């Protein structure tokens, strides 16, 4: 039975700058019960290795998302006509104890999965994706390890930081592979660039079978060819999509903790996100938006737009699946 739908506040009636900020001006609801897609924030940046601030991401992305209208300009998809979507708020994550925070995030996502909704979240730093993946993986063990489509300047498959610490935003996907949460042969990382600690820094990931598409390769081939490869690699198997905002060039997304010059543009990001159509997506996120380093809200607006593109792909895929 279809679930009751929600519509954003109409900006033609009540101006965008008025009212409480929620994701896409959707209703704020107490739980994910009755939703197809739960929009949520994970305001935690305790895994950040450089400049912090992504804990403030969800609130600012909510604010900027008031600009997003209800219909996709290219596909004509009106996601709120196809999916029951609302803002379930932020996970209650304390900022002091990383182990406790990871537990709280996993429990929060497990709850959303148990309520039958797909989590579409805004971080937070990229370590927040690890407990999200753990929860989604456990929610349906029969499904097996998940695929991953990762837009990012960084591979995030390092091993240890600051001595012997296994949990930072530079390590989540190594941990997820080790834990059997992700299937490395169905992982693709797009936009990888920047100086490294050692020439073989990405070798461990490559040895596991992770497909790393550097920004140089992306520049040669373009978004359409790259996404055709991604779709072939993922086929119909369950996959998670994670969008680190630092994949985009810092001239267009300066508000982030670990900027790397020479990234893809916002337009290329949109083209790639539209290329996710047809994938079996089991969850998605936008991470590493850090408002204290933002200029004029441009990075938060980019994050909000990425969130909308993801939502529209989910709606499109739902329609194709019938
Ligand atoms: Mn990352
Ligand atoms: Mn990154």
Automatic annotation (TrEMBL):
GO terms for biological process: putrescine biosynthetic process from arginine, via agmatine. InterPro entries: Agmatinase-rel, Ureohydrolase, Ureohydrolase_dom_sf, Ureohydrolase_Mn_BS. Its cofactor is Mn(2+). Binds 2 manganese ions per subunit. Keywords: Hydrolase, Manganese, Metal-binding. One of its GO terms (molecular function) is agmatinase activity. It holds the Pfam family Arginase. Mn(2+) 2 binds at residue 126. Mn(2+) 1 binds at residues 152, 154, 156, 244, 246. Belongs to the arginase family. Agmatinase subfamily. PANTHER family: ARGINASE/AGMATINASE, GUANIDINO ACID HYDROLASE, MITOCHONDRIAL. This is Agmatinase.
């Amino acid at each position: 039975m279809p679930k009751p739908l929600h519509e954003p506040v109409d900006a033609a009636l009540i101006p965008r700058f008025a009212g409480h900020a929620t994701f896409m001006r959707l209703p704020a609801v107490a739980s994910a019960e009755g939703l197809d897609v739960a929009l949520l924030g994970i305001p935690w940046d305790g895994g950040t290795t450089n400049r912090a601030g992504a804990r403030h991401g969800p609130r600012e992305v909510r604010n900027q998302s008031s600009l997003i209208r209800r219909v996709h300009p290219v596909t004509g998809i009106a996601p709120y006509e196809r999916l029951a979507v609302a803002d379930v708020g932020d996970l209650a994550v304390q900022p002091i104890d990383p182990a406790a925070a990871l537990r709280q995030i996993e429990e929060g996502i497990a709850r959303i999965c148990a309520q039958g909704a797909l989590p579409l979240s805004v971080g937070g730093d990229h370590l927040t994706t690890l407990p999200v993946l753990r929860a989604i993986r456990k929610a349906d063990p029969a499904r097996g390890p998940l695929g991953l489509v990762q837009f990012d300047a960084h591979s995030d498959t390092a091993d240890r930081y600051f001595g012997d610490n296994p949990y930072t935003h530079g390590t989540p996907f190594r941990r997820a592979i080790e834990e059997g949460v992700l299937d490395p042969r169905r992982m693709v990382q797009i936009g990888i660039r920047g100086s490294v600690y050692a020439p073989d820094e990405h070798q461990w990931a490559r040895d596991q079978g992770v497909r790393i598409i550097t920004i140089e390769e992306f520049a040669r081939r373009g978004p359409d060819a790259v996404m055709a490869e991604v779709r072939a690699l993922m086929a119909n198997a369950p996959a998670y999509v994670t969008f680190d905002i630092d994949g985009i060039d810092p001239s267009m997304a300066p508000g982030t903790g670990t900027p790397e010059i020479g990234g893809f543009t916002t337009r290329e990001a949109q083209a790639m996100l539209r290329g996710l159509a047809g994938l079996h997506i089991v969850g998605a996120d936008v991470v590493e938006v850090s408002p204290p380093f933002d200029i004029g809200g441009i990075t938060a607006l980019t994050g909000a737009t990425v969130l909308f593109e993801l939502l529209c792909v989910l709606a499109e895929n739902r329609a194709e699946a019938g």
